[in-house]
Design brief:
Elements: H1 15-59, E1 64-73, H2 89-100, H3 107-114, H4 120-131, E2 139-145, H5 148-154, H6 160-165, H7 171-182, E3 186-190, H8 192-196, H9 209-240, H10 245-257, H11 262-276, H12 284-308, H13 312-320, H14 325-353, H15 357-361, H16 382-390, H17 396-426
Antiparallel strand pairs: 1-2, 1-3
Helix pairs in contact: 1-17, 2-4, 9-12, 9-14, 9-16, 11-12, 12-14, 13-14, 14-17, 16-17
């Protein structure tokens, strides 16, 4: 037993008592800190849950679309058999509605009746006739998409009384809808268009596939450029670059570029890639180049940290058995540093996936209807699509904005899941 620890001080208090008293205070402080940390985690989870509940609550209804069944007569007088692509399909839809409601008289009533059906019905009929020209002269009952206001009414997002007073619906329009419902001609179906179509000014015809394809091509360009360049730069700065003022200046600039606002990279892309090199505007190629410049600092910093984390004994052992500097790096340092480098790539690509400002500067905010088929086709990306829909005045775009956000999150989770799998796949222990 240590007799000094139990000696009594001048004021009669033993040092062991002071230690026990301080120890109890430290333990209380530790418990308080643990409770604060637990409370912070719980609060974060609550806010995250509220975010997901809000997004899902507003966006799940976009997965369904209201359809109306109308009896279509493919009038040969309005569709030329030798050129069915230029038929008056909109007139066919209007004539079919007037046949179903023969009591509708007057131009204003006819216009109100036509508003129940989406303008996309004409494109649907055109596509059917082009696929099967024998439909000309026949009569078919076809489910066509309803107008976005009708869709919102059927989903309960609009009230009958309130929107009747505001002029969104007339009493006769509601009566026509009630009649169609009574005849079982109104039904909600899975909104396939939302997953297969590009953007549209009509909410019931708008989809996210064009933005998904644009995001895929843009991120593919970003990954193919930023990851190898970032890894090569990190390895050179850590293993080969001499330690002098120039490398110090480069390191400072890389760290500063990681904190530069993203819109600055958009301005750089506008000045260099579009104005100087003349690359196509609003193309995934240009978007990928801009996002490559933005993500490179993050990947380089993470890559350097991963290379530094490799124990020096690994290098010494490889060099000791006769391996060259390059062989040591390629066969020993890089495989051990690859998980950390992939972590930097995950962070950089996740940031690139959610960026909007730099892509707005290079024209990817344009209204793009067609699905991009390559790296130079006009395209937009999911964050920009969400931005455009959120700025639209139609009520139907609110649910589509939330649904597109869900698609963006699923895209992000899938990309991060693949990166985590690759990280585990290449991970090695020493």
């Amino acid at each position: 037993m240590n007799r000094r620890s139990y000696s009594v001080s001048d004021n009669g208090i033993r040092p062991i008592d002071i230690v026990k008293k301080n120890l109890a205070g430290r333990r209380r402080a530790e418990r308080r800190f643990r409770r604060m940390g637990l409370a912070a985690i719980i609060a974060s989870l609550i806010f995250l849950a509220l975010l997901f509940v809000s997004i899902i609550g507003n966006g799940y209804s976009a997965l369904f679309q209201t359809y109306i069944k109308i009896d279509i007569f493919f009038d040969p007088g309005k569709i030329a058999k030798n050129d069915p692509s230029n038929g008056d399909y909109q007139g066919i839809v209007k004539a079919s509605l007037r046949t179903m409601f023969p009591d509708v008289k007057g131009r204003s009533e006819k216009r109100s009746l036509n508003k129940l059906v989406s303008s996309g019905a004409a494109f649907q009929l055109r596509k059917m006739v082009l696929a099967d020209p024998t439909l000309i002269g026949q009569k078919r009952s076809i489910w066509v998409p309803a107008d976005d206001d009708v869709d919102m009414l059927m989903k309960g997002h609009l009230s009958r009384q309130g929107d009747t007073r505001s002029g969104r619906f007339s009493d006769k329009q509601l009566q026509w809808l009630d009649r169609l419902e009574a005849e079982e001609r109104v039904r909600k179906k899975i909104n396939i268009t939302f997953f297969t179509a590009g953007d549209s000014r009509e909410p019931e015809l708008a989809g996210v596939w064009g933005a998904v394809a644009g995001s895929f091509f843009t991120l593919l360009v970003t990954l193919m450029l930023s990851f190898p360049i970032g890894v090569a730069a990190a390895v050179y700065l850590e293993e080969f670059a001499p330690k002098n003022r120039w490398t110090d200046l480069i390191e400072v600039n890389i760290n500063n570029l990681a904190a530069v606002p993203s819109i600055v990279f958009g301005l750089l892309g506008l000045a260099v890639f579009l104005n100087f090199f003349g690359l196509p505007r609003s193309a995934p190629l240009v978007g990928g180049l801009v996002l490559t410049l933005m993500t490179l600092p993050t990947i380089i910093i993470a890559g350097r940290a991963a290379v530094q984390a490799v124990p020096p004994s690994i290098r010494d052992a490889a060099l000791g058995v006769g391996a060259s500097k390059m062989q040591t790096i390629m066969h020993h340092v890089l495989p051990l540093a690859m998980p950390g480098m992939l972590t930097g790539a995950i962070i950089g690509m996740a940031r690139a996936l959610g960026e909007t400002a730099p892509l707005l500067m290079i024209g990817m905010v344009a209204f793009i209807v067609d699905i991009p088929g390559g790296f130079t086709d006009p395209a937009t990306v999911l964050p920009v699509q969400v931005y455009l829909w959120a700025d639209s005045p139609e009520r139907a775009f609110v649910e589509r904005t939330s649904a597109a956000t869900l698609v963006l999150l699923i895209f992000l989770f899938a990309m991060n899941g693949l990166a985590v799998y690759l990280r585990k796949r290449f991970e090695r222990r020493w």
